[in-house]
Description:
Elements: E1 10-15, H1 19-34, E2 38-39, E3 48-53, H2 58-77, E4 82-87, H3 93-102, E5 108-110, H4 118-127, E6 132-134, E7 153-157, E8 159-160, H5 171-175, E9 179-180, H6 183-195, E10 200-204, H7 221-229, E11 236-240, H8 249-257, E12 264-266, H9 274-280, H10 286-299, E13 304-311, H11 318-331, E14 335-340, H12 358-381, E15 387-395, E16 402-407, E17 412-416, E18 425-433, E19 437-443
Parallel strand pairs: 1-2, 1-3, 3-4, 4-5, 5-6, 7-10, 10-11, 12-13, 13-14, 17-19
Antiparallel strand pairs: 8-9, 15-16, 15-18, 16-17, 18-19
Helix pairs in contact: 7-8, 11-12
Bound molecules: S-adenosyl-L-homocysteine, iron/sulfur cluster and FE3-S4 cluster.
Amino acid sequence: MNKHDWSPKKYFILTYGCQMNVFDSEVLSGILEAMGYSPANSEEDTDVLLINTCAVRQKAEEKVLSKLGRLRSIKKKNPEMLLVIWGCMVQQKDLAEQISSRYKYIDLIGGPHALERFPQLLEKARTSSKTVIDINDEGERDHLHIKRGHDFKAWVPISHGCSNYCTYCIVPYVRGPERSRPPERIIQEVKELAKNGYKEITLLGQNVNSYGKDIKGGLDFADLLQRLDAIEGLARIRYMTSHPRDFNDKIIRTIEKGRKICEHFHLPVQSGSNKILKLMNRGYTREYYLELINKIKSRVEHCSITSDIIIGFPGEEDADYQDTLDLIQKVQFDAAYVFIYSPRKGTKATAMADQVDLEIKKERIKKLNKIQGKISLDKNRQLLGTKQEILVEERSKTNPDMITGRTRTNKIVHFSSEENLLGKLIDVEIIEAKSWTLTGKYLP
Ligand code: SAH
Ligand code: SF4
Ligand code: F3S
């Protein structure tokens, strides 16, 4: 081959959904690069276009479907390009079938368990006239290549899947039951990352604090945190998501004593009503939750607490909604991510009576967001004038003078500097507070 004709094959990945999906895209990138591909600059000019999908709410699926329609023209212009639809959405058998029969130009459909089989699947798709589908629900996920998105912070999965079966949630069906990774492997991986200069790791799992329950004689989540806290070179340890039910005293004590474990607690409450919590199969009451929050606040100074809330779960009456409003006032979350309940096929809640009217859901979410916005602003204003350590994460794309970083409590801080501070831990003074972001002054 003439050297000058040679151009490497390119890939482009679009990712929807949670951090676990972002991580899976890093694995898919790693595998593609090991196969000789390199990153493309745009989805119009690539040899492989992969869409990594999410199924958690209908909106997430709609986004992918409308994208698929628009891809028809790209595929027409570039028929050699391999189009891959991956992830949670297509792990649902009926959807995989629907998509493959409606969008015949898709080359490969693969669920999250098919990661290790990806190279063979892609090669098969190249020569097959039909869409290749792999939604087998088993597959080894360790020991695969990873192309990290950053060189100072990294995702580290500690478990895959979920066995909680909250009645609204599709995740256990598409990601399978909870499987913890062996602790030695996690510790080894974090040691390597620290040795390579990484400052921050985020432990990933659908329910990190039930870590280890499925492996005999292993460590529990608190033990694991303790071991990771001792690793030299690392500055910050984050984890997500934790389930309030399993957030025990041992974990709180470990965080209190730890030096690197960040003072940020993301504890999705979902609802403030005992009736709804029970219907959701969450395994705790509002009283338990409020006591847990008080315990955390009294033991971990200057911590931040965030949450997820679902509005309009079946059977949610005004009194239940008021209980949720009352709970957010009592807790004073730093931030809350509020979702309108979205019925998911095959989950228990979809079949429940008393589905809430969409208009009522919209009204309730609007009011709740407004109240939470005020609380968030209040909490952020308390930081005015304080000095905060931030890890610098990126330069703004729209304003090259501005840089963004995060505090240990996971608050986003914008500040201006021309220095190259990416990946560094620096101090800023907080000079402006909004509901979602802070502005700081760099203190060199
Ligand atoms: N395992 C994590 C994350 C699950 S998905 C956890 O348990 O917290 C992230 C959030 O999406 C959930 O916390 C919940 O608030 C929301 N969610 C999940 N299923 C939903 C549904 N069917 N409709 C609306 N929101 C949903
Ligand atoms: Fe879904 Fe509940 Fe598992 Fe979270 S804990 S992934 S909400 S089933
Ligand atoms: Fe979505 Fe799958 Fe994550 S359903 S939220 S991408 S685990």
